[in-house]
Amino acid sequence: MLLSHLRAISKATFTKPLSLSSSSMASTEETLRKTLADKLSAVELQGNTVRSLKASSAPKPDIDAAVQALNALKLEKTSIEKSLQSLLSASDSREAFRQSVVNTLERRLFYIPSFKIYRGVAGLYDYGPPGCAVKSNVLSFWRQHFVLEENMLEVDCPCVTPEIVLKASGHVEKFTDLMVKDEKTGTCYRADHLLKDYCNEKLQKDLTLSSDKAAELKHVLAMLDDFSSQELGAKIKEYGITAPETKNPLSDPYPFNLMFQTSIGPSGLASGFMRPETAQGIFVNFKDLYYYNGNKLPFAAAQIGQAFRNEISPRQGLLRVREFTLAEIEHFVDPEDKSHPKYAEVADLEFFMFPREEQMSGQSAKRLRLGEAVSKGIVNNETLGYFIGRVYLFLTHLGIDKDRLRFRQHLANEMAHYAADCWDAEIECSYGWIECVGIADRSAYDLRAHSEKSGVALVAHEKFSEPKEVEKLVITPIKKELGLAFKGNQKKVVEALEAMNEKEALDLKAALESKGEVEFEVCTLGKTVTINKNMVTVHKEIRKEHQRVFTPSVIEPSFGIGRIIYCLFEHAFYTRASKAGDEQLNVFRFPALVAPIKCTVFPLVQNQKYEEVAKLISKSLTAAGISHKIDITGTSIGKRYARTDELGVPFAVTVDSTTSVTIRERDSKDQVRVDVENAASVIREVSEGQRTWEDVWATFPHHSSTAADE
Amino acid sequence: MLLSHLRAISKATFTKPLSLSSSSMASTEETLRKTLADKLSAVELQGNTVRSLKASSAPKPDIDAAVQALNALKLEKTSIEKSLQSLLSASDSREAFRQSVVNTLERRLFYIPSFKIYRGVAGLYDYGPPGCAVKSNVLSFWRQHFVLEENMLEVDCPCVTPEIVLKASGHVEKFTDLMVKDEKTGTCYRADHLLKDYCNEKLQKDLTLSSDKAAELKHVLAMLDDFSSQELGAKIKEYGITAPETKNPLSDPYPFNLMFQTSIGPSGLASGFMRPETAQGIFVNFKDLYYYNGNKLPFAAAQIGQAFRNEISPRQGLLRVREFTLAEIEHFVDPEDKSHPKYAEVADLEFFMFPREEQMSGQSAKRLRLGEAVSKGIVNNETLGYFIGRVYLFLTHLGIDKDRLRFRQHLANEMAHYAADCWDAEIECSYGWIECVGIADRSAYDLRAHSEKSGVALVAHEKFSEPKEVEKLVITPIKKELGLAFKGNQKKVVEALEAMNEKEALDLKAALESKGEVEFEVCTLGKTVTINKNMVTVHKEIRKEHQRVFTPSVIEPSFGIGRIIYCLFEHAFYTRASKAGDEQLNVFRFPALVAPIKCTVFPLVQNQKYEEVAKLISKSLTAAGISHKIDITGTSIGKRYARTDELGVPFAVTVDSTTSVTIRERDSKDQVRVDVENAASVIREVSEGQRTWEDVWATFPHHSSTAADE
User: What are the residue boundaries of the Aminoacyl-transfer RNA synthetases class-II family profile domain, all occurrences included (chains A, B) (predicted)?
Assistant: First the structure.
């Protein structure tokens, strides 16, 4: 039952068939498959005709006409095959795009496969200098946008976690993926991956697939996440799937826990795990944090930190890794009041939302005003809506394309039974729609689980301004009578009577009053007993209460920082022809907020005076905390611009005199001329967002680059 | 041999006897112990005199006089005992101080024992909201002060590390502490801790300890870090030390590896560890980083991240933990040129340094000009000196008291054989002098180790502007002659000849030319053989070389962030009497740079108009990125100031009108009056260091607080 949450960040919905762009594609594909099947039968039929005409030695003109018709049919068939093939290989161009992004990222050390000189470890990556700077900028902005703006309580807990905590949260039992083993070599595979690969391969390569079979395979892909161990095993058997390398038979699927296990202390007896999420560190501290907040709700706690997931076979580069940075918020609210004071600030935002109903009825995501989605009850409550809006602002500020961002609501079967509502911010990239942020109303589940396991009450109090009179139903079993009637079973009967809810008790009371006795089921005895009116009294009592004690609900926005950054890389990447037109140059159009380096400073030619000016400007930039780089290599200015564009550096200062310099903007390639003494402050203002480039462009004289420049 | 580095951050020098404050204490103690011993013999002697007088029925006046003398001696003895006791219990007052700091830190959630509701795990701590903010400020400043100012290449590598990397670095073999087990219960203890506790207990509680014995125990404490397993075991036996709880006998000490072990992937076959330091991630990426830096030296790479150490029995709160944040720099230089272009900027700094020689001769740390220490060769080279200076600036900017900060040079026995020089920034706190930053010139060791293990050359190239003629010594063994003379031993003789260094070869050549033959030692044969001039030629050859290929040296400043923060807490803490004089109020005098919250905003009384002004100011502060808190509780302003002082908040804005507000500085308690619209920008300037409080104080009208205020 915890599964949906536990998988929240791990299972991107790569396999969901109903995405923005793929639904129309799907219907074209179906038509083509059907036409192809028809054409194949027509070819077969016509082939038979030709053969029987030949066998019966029919007149040559008849045979020729039949052969011509056959050839025409074959041509049509080939043409349909080609259309189908090109439709199915749309993913090839996505892969080509990805390859050029990834090549640039690796060549410029945005990231590096970890421990490369030792041939690496699957699913582990380093951020090299520019990647590390982007990550640090994203996290700083996260702190500003969420922690500071919302006055959240940020905490920092260890990764090493004792077993008891993760038993309470359900991870020890349920944080698993299904695995199969090559029965001869013992090599491990993720069961759903093998099935998925089989289906995709069939769908993409097998043109003779009937449209019924294609529909079946697509259904399997859509259901993958929901398959039980038995269902997965059955499908693997049915399709005759074997181990990819050896073709050996595979074991039945069995669960593999994804946590890295270790032991704490020297005895080897205290089992621990590397945390799979940061949230638990906040839940176990609820009591202290509530106190710190002056015993007031609502409040939010936040944590940024490493999380670990021992993937069976990591794929998809930076999207599915064994160690990653999470940024999580736990916003605690009174379950009876989920309004949010700042809700109005986001209610007018409009963006792509993909409610449950649209998914079920095969429609696409649609642009919705957030306020409408909340008021219509599509989004469960204001606080959830508020965070959806804030996440939208966060992602688009970073540079995520708003047309490739949608908020998808969890289907009923994806959501844990206790969850009130759940939305994922999904970003489209070359791998499909990727879940990057999960925003869930998890009700009181987590606090209750830790209360039970630890015995420490994780609750909030609402003090009434004056005591309230509360009507309480009091059930009083008369133990003497019950003892006489049930002897050794008395205790269980008493417990069953006391455990009745209000409705049951009132029904019992009414029945006793009208009939004098009643049949009463005692689960723990596994049978029904007869209760008469001497055995129990049920009455209402007025009590004075001074406070309400309750377990708060928690609304949890959880950010996969590495996934956001990878999608950002793809959305920011483009190529443009060099001035000479002889090569394609790579550019990352990072906003200054995110750019790893805000500015490059270079002397136009190697010259001591220019270098001194460059150093002067560099010194002012350092003092202002603006990251930058001096490039004094003798390469042509065009090459140096290209180098800096490929790192996504938004501005370049070129020193071509000792009194003024040019400032170039990366995407427009526009240049202005600014006095040396003002250069650093212009760069600072435009990098920190106090000033736009348009404003700079309107203020300073324009500089037209010479042919030599680019 | 790796031990010294591997222990670099783990082993604070708690036990070194020669600290600034303790050396004079030590001599007083010795005098007192000697005087006490003398006095005890005198008392015994006089007691005998009295007894013999009584036995011989001497005249009463004689007996009375003897008794009086005895009593006088006893009084003197008691007085000396008291002095010794109070000297030995100086640590009690340090502990009392620590207790009040720690109480405040825990009560205000600067930190929280992790998983407290599950009774915690030794050596794991959470940073609560103010602690987390302090940490984040310290790390931001670290990035600004080191990464940005020095243009370092920051990287971010995973914590999960495959075994081969840590085998190459030596951690798998040598990253151990010596452990003993209770032979009956199996409980584990750190062997050196037990011995240390025994010695300290004896020294502090046993007043009858002879000064020789005291000296011996102190010597043991000083040598603890250097004891072998056998030496530790022998001492434990000699002193009869048993298991603390059970008094059971203890096992012999044996090494326990301090890394948390896990396995990577589902097979259980790939062993991995949680990294014990971040440095290895940089070393394995050297080749890429060197390329990224345009194949130029010197350059520095930096990394901030979690590191793990499965301590046998963690003690000393935040100073000895199982998971901690490290910030490490690896500065790669040409071993033949360790100058630093910015060295002059730090050369005139003057601070406490504790060179090897002063430690060996029992002197104290002394104030030295850094430039002098480098020019006299006390500090090995300019780059090492530069980083010592930068670390000094970093720590003192954070608020570390410069009088409780010293740079201690490693003694020869503390340093790895390959290290050129090593200095620790040690900060004095209630636990003694704590190693918080290690600054080591590790020569080429780490890159060579990974080159060898991985087979990937981690080297730098210096291209000569024109080819250089290099004189090379060529040793040519004449195998035919050697074979005739030495038969089966020929190979070993050839190897020994080829392994000669330049001086040995030239000596051999000279001897052969003068005497015709020479006695030559072949280690691998364990004997000396006779070499004559037909058996080997030694001559010089001129070769043309186009570049120099070499393994760079690395200078490594490594920062234990948690330790720095804990020491900062102690240095910032003080108490002052409340205005009424009825209680002691706690204050942390954090610089604004470090303070968890820069400013509190409160309406003087609960009043809607004032609250609106407070919200307005809050909004401007948020926009400027200044962390702050609104406090609208109805408590007295004095109480609210006290609450904010205890969090180390440097400024408080009190709204007592709708046109102007007061701004109060924490330590002076001085207040100025500022217009509402200027309040936020004044707070921003004074928080970000563009303006000093002195300047604010000189600019705005002063506000004298009324009696009710504090």
Answer: 236-591
